[in-house]
């Protein structure tokens, strides 16, 4: 059990590695003319369609972000250079990054091509220090691949992930067991993983601006204000996360889902979460060179009623824009405006060739919907 409030010293040593603007950084590495410029991998230079897969840090200064429509990205950064994705190149770099990880541990949980958890509680080279291992990994990535990565080091996955994002790019942040609660107390509520804009606004209206403010409330009080997710807030503000690193997580599914610590009620928040999930699914599809003919949206409501909606195509699909737009269409068909949603998931399935006798894609406007009740 990983609990920073206890006196035990048998903590896990967890590293979260997150490559810095991965696709864009690979493009800038391989094409000197892109260096120092605002580039977006994916999307359309005319702004007619498509979405950004990754933006360079030069573009991010203008507010350009992943899963943003090309038109909006161009409005924010008129000088933006759109670059066609080269997924074979990204997958090869990702393979080399994984080889670097495996020098130190076999407990590697990849989240995407550019992000992974490592459990180095017992490391292959008997270095003993997770901070030193993170430094060595970052240096190897820089020396061997001419790229930078940010690392977060702590005793659990939740804190390590937050830590890796604190000093990007090329950061290394350690949050030890004795520092976790103090760190969480200073953290703004919107920085807590899973707290979206709607919940953050509600918290601020209640005078809750930081982890320290949340910590003043008892578990029962948090439940009264936020329902069952109050128990989640009670634990996470104390840095408690007992999830293990799962080495085979990525290969088990080509879908992605997320259970939220609060109920989504605003459609714009639902769309933002769908964009994140679609990007994860898209990355996994690219890793395995797969396309699917069925896109499925999974929804679980606050009362735990669960439904799925799916759309089938006559030709296999796998591009990010289609995944996002289809997921949003499927969501719209559920009339989500008056619903409270606690989980969303996107899955691509039915891998293989086009339907025999077909020479064009299924009309995206025609939805094939099936409802299934579940837990």
Describe this structure in words.
This protein has 375 residues and is of the alpha+beta class. It has four domains: 14-19 and 88-174, Reverse transcriptase/Diguanylate cyclase domain (Alpha-Beta Plaits, 2-Layer Sandwich), CATH 3.30.70; 22-85, 3-Layer(aba) Sandwich (MutS, DNA mismatch repair protein, domain I); 193-236, 5' to 3' exonuclease, C-terminal subdomain (DNA polymerase, domain 1, Orthogonal Bundle), CATH 1.10.150; 253-351, DNA polymerase, Y-family, little finger domain (Dna Ligase, domain 1, 2-Layer Sandwich). It is 35% helix and 21% strand. It contains 13 helices and twelve strands. The chain has a five-stranded mixed β-sheet with strand order 5-6-1-7-8. A four-stranded antiparallel β-sheet has the order 9-12-10-11. β10 (292-301) and β11 form a beta hairpin. The radius of gyration is 21 Å and the shape is globular. 42% of the residues are buried. Mean pLDDT is 85; it is low at 4-8 and 353-375.
């Amino acid at each position: 059990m990983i609990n920073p409030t206890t006196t035990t010293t048998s903590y896990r040593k967890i590293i979260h590695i997150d490559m810095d603007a991965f696709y864009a950084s690979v493009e800038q590495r391989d094409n000197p003319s892109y260096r120092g410029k605002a580039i977006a991998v994916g999307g359309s230079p005319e702004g007619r369609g498509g979405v950004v897969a990754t933006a360079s840090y030069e573009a991010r200064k203008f507010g350009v972000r992943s899963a943003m429509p090309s038109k909006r990205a161009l409005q924010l950064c008129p000088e933006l250079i759109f670059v066609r994705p080269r997924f074979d190149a990204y997958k090869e770099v990702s393979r080399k990054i994984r080889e670097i990880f495996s020098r130190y541990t076999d407990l590697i949980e990849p989240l995407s091509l550019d992000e992974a958890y490592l459990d180095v509680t017992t490391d292959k080279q008997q270095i003993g220090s997770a901070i030193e291992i993170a430094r060595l990994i970052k240096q190897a990535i820089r020396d061997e691949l001419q790229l930078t990565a940010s690392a977060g080091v702590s005793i659990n996955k939740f804190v390590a992930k937050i830590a890796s994002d604190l000093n990007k790019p090329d950061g290394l942040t350690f949050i030890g067991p004795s520092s976790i609660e103090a760190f969480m107390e200073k953290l703004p509520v919107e920085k807590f993983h899973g707290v979206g804009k709607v919940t953050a606004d509600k918290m601020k209206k209640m005078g809750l601006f930081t982890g320290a403010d949340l910590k003043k409330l008892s578990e029962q009080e948090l439940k009264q204000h936020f329902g069952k997710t109050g128990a989640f807030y009670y634990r996470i503000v104390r840095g408690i996360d007992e999830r293990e690193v799962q080495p085979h997580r990525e290969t088990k599914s080509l879908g992605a889902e997320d259970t939220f610590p609060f109920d989504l009620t605003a459609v714009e928040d639902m769309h933002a979460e769908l964009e994140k999930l679609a990007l994860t699914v898209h990355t996994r599809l690219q890793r395995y060179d797969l396309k699917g003919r069925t896109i499925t949206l999974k929804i679980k409501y606050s009362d735990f009623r669960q439904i799925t909606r799916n759309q089938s195509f006559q030709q296999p699909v796998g591009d990010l824009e289609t995944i996002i737009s289809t997921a949003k269409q499927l969501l719209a068909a559920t009339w989500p405006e008056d619903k409270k949603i606690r989980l969303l998931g996107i899955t691509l399935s039915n891998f293989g060739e086009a339907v025999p006798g077909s020479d064009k894609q299924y009309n995206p406007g025609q939805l094939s919907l099936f409802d299934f009740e579940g837990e």
